[in-house]
Structure formats: structure tokens, C-alpha cells
Amino acid sequence: MVWPVGYQLQGGKYIIEEVLGQGGFGITYKALHGLFNYPVVIKTPNEYLKNRPEYHKYVKRFIKEANILARISENPHPHIVRVHDLFTESATHCLVMDFIPGENLFELVKRRGALPEKEIVGYVRQIGEALAQFHEIGLVHRDAHPGNIMLRGNGKAVLIDFGIAKELETSTQSSTGIAGNQGFAPYEQTVRGSREPTVDVYCLAATLYYTVTGQRPSTSLDRKLNKAVLTPPNIIVPSISRRLNQAILKGMALEAKDRPQSMEKWLKLLTPTAPLTREKFISQSKFWLNILFQDHYKLDIRHTLYLILRFFS
Questions:
Q1: Longest distance between any two alpha carbons in the chain, whole Å
Q2: Which of 104, 280, 309, 312 stands 20 to 30 A from 194 (CA)?
Q3: What's the predicted TM-score (pTM) here?
């Protein structure tokens, strides 16, 4: 049953205002906090899922991870939506989170087309840092696609809609008009329900692919089973940097073992290499010159480095 507008939960603590979306796992509502008069988002599982034999196992995980997220919210991360409450209403589990006004990355790309590299890398870096914090406590989001990245008016990106019951989702049409996270999930998540950090690396790299090209990447299933080719981003948009192109392709490696094994390592691929300044070159040259001025190195190597050092001194 979908709760109608005006329906009250928890004795009037929350009042339903509208249905924001309905996906494979559940229904997302916008509601009003009846006492403090501020908007919130409430997520509930779909009733038909209760008939599935694995439902209770995943609801148990849902509750466990929701409690962890609530503890995170006591010291909130600026790029992770806050969790306020978890309760049961008429045998339906409800997760209450911040309502984030603005548009998501799907909507932004639909409105503007492919986004400038500098702009989108800034957003993705914010979300990557948030995911890295997730991974430190043993959680994996598993659904960091463009529809779950909201953009505030102040230029800050916020990760929403935690994938804490991702295994129960089906390929239903989401409120973004996108069928699930097709094109953004790695093969091992789709087939085996993997919960490793490399899942988030793939998803965020695929999000970067979509936002800088304006095109959805080939699905991991199609690449694995049908040998579909993932077109390099710089073929679609030649102006993007080599660094960004390589970061996307490495993050979207088909096999998890071929991707950076942590979010921090992947984010480093997005960081420009600092230019070699005169001072840094001199410092490094002196270090290696001291090593090479040992008897077992040939004189011509020492002499060459000596001349280079004199040139920069």
C-alpha cells in the first residue's frame, strides 16, 4: 500500500506530503516533521517483497546498517545525507533521512549535456571522500550512480539513497527515468552481490564517464558476456585530459582485481601530478648524486648527473 498525502506516521510525528519515487526495493516519500516543521525523506520496502524467502535476512541487515548510519550522523559528513530515525509503522520498516533540495547528476546532465571536467571532478571527489569514510567502517554504498548524487545550490554534492538493501532490487524504472543503475554496476555486483569497496570504485568511475561524456557506458554484463567494448571517454570528448581518461578506464576495469583496490587509490588518479620545480629537481638530484658517487658506479654516470646539477644550481 502506498501511503496517501496527509497520512500520519508515529502519531503525527511525520506527515506524508508526496511520493518521490518507487523502485525495486521500496517507496521513497517526502514528509513533513509534524513538530519541527521541516521536510524529510522516508524510505520503506515494497510490501510484495515480504513474500520473498530472503526478505527477513535483508531487513535484518537493513536495520543493522541503518543504525550504523545513524551513528555516523551524530558527527555528520558534509557529503553524506544524514539519517534521523528508524521505526516500524504497521509492520513496515521506515528509514528517515534529510531531504536534500536541488537536482541530481542525471537531471543536470539531461539539462546541460556533458559537464566540464573541472566541475564534475570536484563533485566526484567530494563523493569519493565520503565513500572512503564509509569503507573505513566496513560499509559499501553499492549504488553511487548519478541519480543518487544530489547537488546543493552551494556547489556541494551529497550522496543519498544508501544501497543497504541493494540485493532485493529488481530492474524496475526509477523516479529518474533510468532503469535501476544499469551501466553503473560492476559485473561481480550484478551476478554475485559483491560488497567490496571496488564496487563503489566502479560505480563512481562510471558516474564520471556518464557526466563527462553525456553517454551511458556499456554495461558490465554486456562487456563480460558479449564482449561489448567500453568506448574510451576521450574518443567521445577529445578535450578531456589523459589523466581523467585513464582514471575512468582503470576504475571501470571489468575485473575487480584490475581496479584500484581502495577509493583513496582511485582518487589519487584524479589528482594532477605536481610540476617538477627547480628546487625540487635540485633536491632530488643531490640525493641521487650522493648515491651514485659510490665506487661501484661508473664515472660517466656520475659525470652526467654532475653536469645536470651544475646547470640547475
A1: 86
A2: 104
A3: 0.79
